[in-house]
Design goal:
Blueprint lengths: L1 E6 L5 H16 L5 E6 L10 H9 L14 H6 L2 E4 L2 H12 L3 E3 H5 L16 H30 L1
Helix pairs in contact: 1-6, 2-6
Length: 156
């Protein structure tokens, strides 16, 4: 399975989500899921934001190798599940033929009960980045619970 996280610049939320998901997948032994990220307005090759890198380091995650990627039709086509940080990201994914496999992150995690966007820390102080990290950590645990449950259903 290929999982893709999408935000605007691919410097804050989606790189944090990607790194967190990799860690949580490894902790659960779900090695069949490959994780990536991209941005709807990203410049290819830029590093993660300083705030994201610092907050990641506080939690023993390393974003130093992260380089931004522009969301493309090819990336959308390769992904099995796309989780967008906000409604405008979801609209862009759907415009690139991602309908049916793209969801808002909170909506997917809550089985449609929440249509909230993930808070964007861009331009905020370190505490804003920390709050976004915590929000992503909690939400991704629910996403992975759902993926694990869905896998058990298909394996049964």
């Amino acid at each position: 399975m290929r999982l893709l996280f999408v935000c605007t610049g691919n410097t804050c939320r989606s790189p944090l989500a990607e790194a967190l998901a990799r860690r949580q997948l490894a902790e659960r032994g779900l090695g069949h899921v490959h994780v990536g990220s991209a941005g709807t307005s990203a410049w290819d090759g830029a590093p993660a934001s300083d705030g994201s890198m610092l907050v990641a380091m506080e939690h023993d995650l390393d974003l130093s190798a992260h380089r931004t990627r522009q969301l493309t039709k090819e990336l959308v086509g390769e992904a099995d599940l796309i989780l967008a940080m906000g409604p405008h990201h979801l609209e862009r994914v759907e415009a690139l033929d991602g309908s049916g496999k793209a969801h808002l992150l909170h909506a997917y995690a809550s089985h449609g009960e929440s249509q909230a966007a993930v808070s964007d820390p861009f331009g905020g102080d370190l505490d804003v980045y920390r709050a976004t990290y915590q929000e992503l950590d909690r939400t991704l645990r629910r996403v992975l619970d759902r993926l694990a449950a869905d896998r058990q259903k298909t394996d049964a």
